[in-house]
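Researcher: Last one for today. Full complex below.
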Amino acid sequence: MSTISIPRRRAAGSHLLQVALSVFAVAGMAAMMWFALVYARPAANLEGTEQIAQRIFYVHMGCTVGALAAFLVSLIGSAGYLVTRNLDWDRMTQASIEIGLVFGLGTIISGSIWSKPTWNTYWTWDPRLTASTITVLVYIAYLLFRNGIENRSTRARFGSIYALFAFLSIPLTYYSARWFRSIHPVVFGGENADAQGSFSIGPSMSQTLIVGAIAYSLLFGALLLTRWRQLRMEDRLAELREELE
Amino acid sequence: MIYLAVALIAVWLLVTLYVVFMGRRQRRLEEEIGTLEEMMAERRARAAQPPAKQTGAGMAARRAS
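Model: Here's the assembly. Have a good evening.
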C-alpha cells in the first residue's frame, strides 16, 4: 500500500521539478509555435488554403506524440501497480490517461479541421479516424468505470487491468492506415497508396516535428507531475476524512 | 488561414481548460486539507488535555447542593 506522508525534502524536490518542467514546457511550446508558423517551409506540392492548413500538421503530430507518450506511461503505471501494489503507480496511470485524453481529443479535433480543406469533409469513417475515436472512447470509459468503484485498492486493481487491455487500441490505431484501406497518409515507416493530401517532408519540416515532439513531451511531463501530486493530495484528503470519522 | 487558426485555438483551448480544471481542483483540495488538518489538531489537543481538577470549593458546593 502507499504511504502518503512523503519526506519534506522529497516533496520539495518534486515541487521544484514540477516548476522546472512547467517552465521548459512553456518555452518549448512557444518555440514549437514559432517553428510551425514561421520556420517550417510550406509544402511544395500543395497550394492555397491546403498549403496554409498543412501547418496544422505540427500541432496534430504534437498532440499525437503527447497522447502516445501518455498512454505508454499509463501502460507502465498499470504494470507497475500490479507488480508492486504501490498506489503511486495507479495515480501515474490515472494522471497519464487524463492527459492522454486531452491530447487524443486534440489530435482528433485538429485532424478533423485539417481534413476539411484536404478531404473536403470534416469527418469520414476512415479506419484511422475510427480507430482513434475508439481509442479515446476506451480511455474515457476507463475514467468513468474507475470513478464508480468505492474501494481504493479495488479501483486501482481494476484500473490497472483495464489500462493494460486498453493499450491494445494504440498499435491498432497506429497500424490502421497500413493494414486497412485508408485515405489517411502514413508519416513514418511506410507508404499508403490510397492517401489523399500527403506531402513530402523536407528538412525544415523534420526539424519542426522534432521540436514539436520535444515540446509536447515536456508539456506532458509537466502536466503529469502536477496531476500526479494532486491525486496524491486527494488520497491524503480521503485518509484524513477516514481518520476523522 | 481560418482552418489553421481554428485548429490552433481548439488545441490550446483544450490544454488551457485542463490546466484551469487542475488549478481549481488544487485550490479546493488545499482548502479542504487545511480545514481537516485544523480539525484533527483541535481534536488531538482536546484528547491530550488532562481532565479538570476538582477544587475544594467546588466539591463543597456540590455537596451542599
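Chain B has two helices and no strands. Chain B has a mean pLDDT of 82.
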